[in-house]
Amino acid sequence: MTAKKTYTQCEHERINSREYPGTRQLCYECDEPTGLCEDDGLLDEDGNWLCEECFALSKNLSLEN
Prior knowledge:
Helix content is 37%, strand content 6%. It has 2 helices and 2 strands; from the N terminus they run αββα. It has a two-stranded antiparallel sheet with strand order 1-2. The longest helix has 13 residues, at 52-64.
């Protein structure tokens, strides 16, 4: 019986970025991974994907205007 190899989170991220590059959702504002999927993604007023931090900033800015 062969033992199943376990990967660290960094190894998983490296494998996923190599094997599934189209599935990584990047923030339109900061170009960092959003950490979200399409089902729970955050969008700006123009329909661009945002990370939680940029989404919060965009809401604060729009409330001040």
